Amino acid sequence: MLRVEHISKTFNPGTINEKKALDRLSLHLMPGEFVTVIGGNGAGKSTMLNAIAGTWPVDEGRIAIDGVDVTALPDFKRAPYIGRVFQDPMLGTAPDMWLEENLALALRRGKPRGLKWGISKAEREQYREKLAALGLGLEDRMTTKVGLLSGGQRQAITLLMAALQKPKLLLLDEHTAALDPATAAKVLELSDRIVTENNLTALMITHNMTDAIKHGSRLIMMNQGKIILDIAGEEKRHLTKKDLLDRFAALAGVQEETDSVLLS
């Protein structure tokens, strides 16, 4: 479903601030895989996600989604293939629009618009059913402005919107980092459910080692713009936080406290 082949990205080339963020990185995701990504600040996690989303072009390499080469496409032309949830709950929704209006926009993304009524009765019932499945009571608040909802509620809505058209690839960009632990756990539970029920291929960045181990079917660790560890299946199911720290220290050659490197 996703093929990233030898991509590189350097910021501020030829200057004193030159930074090689991605170093000939390759990654393949099969349909239905849920991959968690972990690594320290500057490891290249967000750069990789932004490169896949088309936020900025790569210097070299190739990116294909479901067999379509999107390397040269800007982000808005990749939108039909990708759903994305950001770290900031304020992003991903229109705060001054009703909840049902936000869902209608998500349902119509990439489709031609007409002059008929914006939301049909059948659509409204569909939205009510999907909101009820979240278990947050939002099915009774469909005419509430999204900006009045809590951060956790907004992230749940953004998740629902991102998955509404069943994208080829769902990108979760530290989407629980700004939430309190209890709310973050609820949003992660919803993430698991939405990915599983819709059989989505997903890539989730996190700074939380426990979440990276607990969620998803595969875990990759990044360091200095490269993937240094790739664990799936039975090996991942038996992985512990200590195992992850020890392997990071061995692979990255880090001598200091490894959890501070990963979570800094």
What does it look like?
- With 264 residues, the chain is of the alpha/beta class.
- It is 36% helix and 23% strand.
- The model has no long low-confidence stretch (mean pLDDT 88).
- Strand 9 (218-223) and strand 10 (226-232) form a beta hairpin.
- The longest helix is centred in the C-terminal third of the chain and has 17 residues, at 181-197.
- It is globular and about 55 Å long.
- Helix 5 packs parallel to helix 6 (181-197).
- It has helices at 45-53, 75-78, 99-107, 121-134, 151-163, 181-197, 209-214, 233-237, 241-252, 258-263; strands spanning 2-11, 19-29, 34-38, 60-65, 68-69, 82-85, 169-173, 202-205, 218-223, 226-232.
- It has one domain (2-95, 150-263): Rossmann fold, CATH 3.40.50.300.
- The two termini are 32 Å apart.
- It has a six-stranded mixed sheet with strand order 6-7-8-3-9-10, sandwiched between helices.
Please render the helix and strand layout as text.
Blueprint: E1 2-11, E2 19-29, E3 34-38, H1 45-53, E4 60-65, E5 68-69, H2 75-78, E6 82-85, H3 99-107, H4 121-134, H5 151-163, E7 169-173, H6 181-197, E8 202-205, H7 209-214, E9 218-223, E10 226-232, H8 233-237, H9 241-252, H10 258-263
Parallel strand pairs: 3-8, 3-9, 6-7, 7-8
Antiparallel strand pairs: 1-2, 1-4, 4-5, 9-10
